[in-house]
Amino acid sequence: MLVFKLVGALLLLASGAGLAMGAARFERTRLQVHDGLISLIFHIKGRIDCYAMPAEQILLEMDKGILADCRCPGQVDSIDALLPHVKGYLDPETYRVLQSFGQGLGGGFRDEQIKRCDYYIELLRQKRMQLESELPARVRTNGMIWILCAVGAVILLW
Known about the structure:
Strand content: under 5%
Shape: elongated
Order of helices and strands: HHHHHH
Number of helices: 6
Low-confidence stretches: none
Structural class: mainly alpha
Distance between the termini: 11 Å
Radius of gyration: 21 Å
């Protein structure tokens, strides 16, 4: 009977460690998604600046690597079509910022669109820097929470 308890305790501890690693991976993925979104807007800015392309055409001809960094499985024709793929990785404020970027994309003169892209790139860079500075603490906290939950479950079920 003791062997089963030990095996069960080890399984609970292993699941807690696995969940802790998954939480750490999620936090790193949040940074990658922000990097992908910055690259996406920078690419859009370059296409508007150099080729004066319409927004829909820019997004349809987007590099698959940039879209993969944004966790988008295929082509998109608008920012609104991209947002459901990244919603889980963004806080509500950043999501709202990207919604307003998508609504204003393609409207106005070329210079206005470039300034708008620069503004949103800077907002996302600031958010990314904040996430990067918080990353070690968030990884430690999430890891400790999951591991302590597993230890607590072992203690309660012993």
